[in-house]
Specification:
The chain is α/β, with parallel strands linked by helices. It has helices at 2-6, 21-30, 44-55, 81-88, 103-115, 132-145, 178-192, 195-200, 240-248, 281-286, 288-299, 309-314, 415-427, and strands at 11-16, 35-37, 60-64, 92-97, 121-129, 150-155, 164-165, 168-169, 226-230, 235-237, 252-256, 269-272, 274-275, 304-307, 315-319, 325-327, 332-338, 344-352, 360-366, 368-372, 377-384, 392-397, 400-403.
């Protein structure tokens, strides 16, 4: 993305799947917000609408896959990278780790292409090529046994390594060397790949103008609400199209930092997304004014939507792996205990307790668990995944709902519509939560 931008191509990036961290890097590299395309949480119509709308002003659109080309939860491949490529009529650029092999690379490429003949391919980038001789042997095999264009041969280069933590890559905002890493990667691609040849053979697809009714159209009822949203180093996991949707609904989003600031004035609701509050527990714990404001606001019936890190922050106490205890907001009568291994990881299927026959998909990835001091009021039944206790997710306290699950606004999971309905009811005095 950075290399394309440096060659005066306007690039729009997308990430396949529910990941939050990779889009932060892609956005930094392209200079534009990155959007997630998730066939597990979006219909094909919604995927195409989002892609077409966000690609309109770009010369090049790049979709970064997840895992291998044909991997996914569904054995038929309906949620794979290949399926996304077919849905959006996009050619696939393969990137192959070539360490320890040469002729076998051609066999792998043939296998990938034959596995699903309906997938179109733009070419291949050979990654981690050890020497010029190694590259020549691989190229000779590919040219002999396939007709796939070789776009580049990229050597191993330690300066583009990105630090990792629980969720994979270290988030770009948390990495002091993020820009240097991106610049090094850009130089590597420009030196070793022929992007002009790649882009010259990528067809231009005319938008079908289907997005107006499907993507970020906003609620049919305008919502002139002021919603505070936690955005800092501790809380920054939000889907860009969810933020766009909120604004399209007429919402004024007021960002603030729970690490150092109080609640914004005159707000109608509060959103606390995911992140890594455990890495900033001391700052969050010491913000006594904010914790008091949140307790009072929730007691007064303010609608709150909290996900994962937001759930953690609303609990009484966070206990680190080392046993250090940090008092937090104290809204939920429970203690967060950090664990070394993931407690919940991957897609989670939920159903509201009062609507058990209408399940929907969300995503979870947490290295913590909640130990409650008294039984909570749960909101969801877990049909697949872990959630809070393996059977339930979502805790309601007055008009606040906090879950380990991360939600994505879609026709099947209209969390924003539901949240704004709660805000509207509270504002006009119809809410039962006071």
């Amino acid at each position: 993305a950075a290399a394309a931008t440096s060659k005066d191509y306007s690039a729009q990036t997308f990430k396949k799947g529910p990941d939050y961290i990779d889009p932060l890097w892609l956005a930094m590299a392209s200079g534009q917000p990155c959007y997630n395309l998730d066939p597990r949480q979006q219909s094909e119509f919604e995927l195409a609408a989002l892609y077409e709308q966000r690609s309109e002003s770009a010369q090049i659109s790049l979709v970064e896959g997840t895992m291998g080309l044909h991997d996914g939860m569904d054995i038929s491949g309906s949620d794979s990278n290949a399926a996304i490529a077919k849905t959006l009529d996009l050619p696939v650029l393969l990137v192959v780790d070539c360490r320890g092999m040469h002729r076998t690379v051609a066999a792998l490429l043939n296998g990938l292409m034959l596995f699903d003949p309906d997938v179109a391919f733009a070419g291949v980038i050979l990654n981690r090529v050890k020497t010029d001789r190694h590259g020549r042997k691989i190229s000779n095999a590919i040219n002999t046994y396939t007709d796939l264009p070789i776009i580049g041969e990229v050597p191993e280069y330690s300066e583009v390594a990105i630090a990792e933590q629980n969720l994979g890559l270290l988030p770009a905002p948390d990495s002091p060397e993020a820009n240097n890493t991106i610049q090094s990667a850009k130089a590597l691609i420009l030196d070793h790949c022929d992007l002009d040849a790649l882009f010259a053979h990528v067809p231009t697809v005319e938008p079908e103008q289907i997005h107006d009714s499907a993507c970020n159209a906003g609620s049919t009822q305008s919502s002139n609400f002021r919603i505070a949203i936690a955005q800092d180093e501790a809380f920054h996991f939000y889907y860009q199209d969810d933020l766009d949707y909120l604004k399209a609904c007429g919402v004024e989003l007021i960002a603030f930092s729970p690490m150092s600031e109080c609640l914004p004035a005159n707000i109608d609701g509060l959103i606390i997304g995911g992140g890594f509050p455990e890495h900033h527990a001391q700052s969050l714990s010491e913000n006594e004014a904010l914790k008091c404001e949140i307790r009072e606001a929730i007691s007064a019936g303010m609608p709150v939507h909290a996900e994962c890190g937001g759930l953690m922050f609303l609990c009484q106490t966070l206990v680190t792996e080392q046993g250090v205890r940090w008092p937090l907001a104290g809204v939920i009568n429970g203690t967060i205990r950090m664990r070394k291994k993931p407690v919940g990881r991957g897609y989670i299927q939920l159903a509201e307790l009062d609507a058990p026959d209408h399940p929907f998909w969300a995503h979870e990835f947490h290295h913590s668990e909640v130990v409650f001091d008294s039984p909570p009021e749960f909101v969801y039944r877990v049909k697949r995944g872990h959630g809070i206790d393996g059977q339930h997710d979502g805790v309601r306290v007055h008009n606040a709902i906090a879950s380990y699950a991360h939600f994505r606004q879609s026709a099947s999971t209209p969390w924003i519509d539901n949240f704004l309905a709660r805000v509207r009811e509270q504002k006009i005095g119809l809410s039962n939560y006071v």
